[in-house]
Amino acid sequence: MSAMDTRDLLTDAFSRLAPLTRELVEGADGDLLHARLDPQANTLAWLLWHTARQQDVQVAALADREPVWTAEGWADRFDLPLDVDDFGYGHEPDDVAAVRVADPTLLSGYQDAVAAMVDAHLATLDADALDRVIDASYDPPVTVGVRLVSVVGDALQHLGQAAFLRGVLERRQERIADDFDQRAATWDDDPTKVERARFAAEAVLAAVDPRPDARVLEYGAGTGLLAQHLAPRVGPLTLADPSSGMRAVMQAKVERGILPDAQVVDLDLSQPVDDVGPFDLVALLLALHHVPDPAPVVANLAEVLAPGGSLAIVDLEPEDGSFHGEGFEGHPGIDPDRLRTWCEAAGLGEVDVVPCGTMERHGQDYPLFLATARRPAQR
Ligand SMILES: C[S@@+](CC[C@H](N)C(=O)[O-])C[C@H]1O[C@@H](n2cnc3c(N)ncnc32)[C@H](O)[C@@H]1O
């Protein structure tokens, strides 16, 4: 095989990485990018970042140039809380969690920039350059050509993992939405759900004491039971739920005057939004433990609050997993201390957590808490 053939083979192999990355980020939301199959598992964001990063570092070293990460401003755009030279080798689960992107196209944009650099470098390589030994400590010694095969092999392995992960996560999201869609029509037939919404609404109203014209968002609203009980004491309601079945039930309640003038929306706060709010009160009832990655959602809930506005979250205390049972894909309750940390990291103050009754299920009592926090009047 001629030297030209070898270079063409490498160029072809590397040219597949950018289109694969673009496919993997297309339409991906924050939940999909940052969800983990277990607490040790890599996220889609980490896999795609590392794939591009290791090519950049290793090929830039071969080319004796600065990686595009710093040379073209990608480190600033990602703004990760990691050392600027870090490219993911030896990362622990906390380091993986630190790789968060608000905009998924950053990942494909960076891979595109790396691909252009790699392509330009490959075009300079002749047979002698490919055979140059760069690490004689191995037997046989590592040549430039061998290193490039390792780099592209590593990238393909990680992209394969990313494709597998995205498929599993998408099916999981669909299962959750299907489950709530199916339960929506009969949700309100269960008197315990109606009663716990009434109880939670009273607790929220007592803790927050909203103005009569307060603009309210209920997130993960289900059939809007909490909002129904808040409605007589507050102003305009916005009701968000990812389940189309739940939204249909809420829309029917709007039309029947049960939730007068409420706006029903499909709002995803796993990513920042800039055209929503502001709200004087954002309330959640038993929704946060269903959110795969709660910290950024809390941060985005804080962002849609008006200055001086309140966040009120009623949820399950940590439990042994028996509440939802085998196969549940959310969290077995929410640790109030972690919720406090997420609120404070989101810039909220006056965080307060108090008990908020119990829920009976399978003959067992599960304690609930009410967490409230306030966005400072001025930041
Ligand atoms: C246990 S239900 C509670 C519904 C309502 N708040 C109530 O107490 O009757 C959980 C709700 O959270 C919604 N949900 C599930 N995953 C979510 C997510 N990632 N973000 C926001 N809401 C979600 C579901 O569609 C469902 O309506």
Provide a compact summary of the structure.
With 379 residues, this protein is an alpha/beta fold.
Word description of this protein:
It is a single chain. 48% of the residues lie in helices and 16% in strands. By secondary structure, the chain is an alpha/beta fold. It has 2 domains: 3-181, dinb family like domain (Four Helix Bundle (Hemerythrin (Met), subunit A)), CATH 1.20.120; 185-374, Vaccinia Virus protein VP39 (Rossmann fold, 3-Layer(aba) Sandwich), CATH 3.40.50.150. It has a 7-stranded mixed β-sheet. Strands 1-2 form a two-stranded antiparallel sheet. The protein is elongated, with a radius of gyration of 25 Å. The model has no long low-confidence stretch (mean pLDDT 94). It binds S-adenosylmethionine. S-adenosylmethionine binds at residues 31, 176, 180, 193, 197, 220-222, 225-226, 241-243, 246, 285-287, 290-291. Residues 31, 176, 180, 193, 197, 220-222, 225-226, 241-243, 246, 285-287, 290-291 line the site of S-adenosylmethionine. Keywords: Transferase. This is Methyltransferase domain-containing protein.
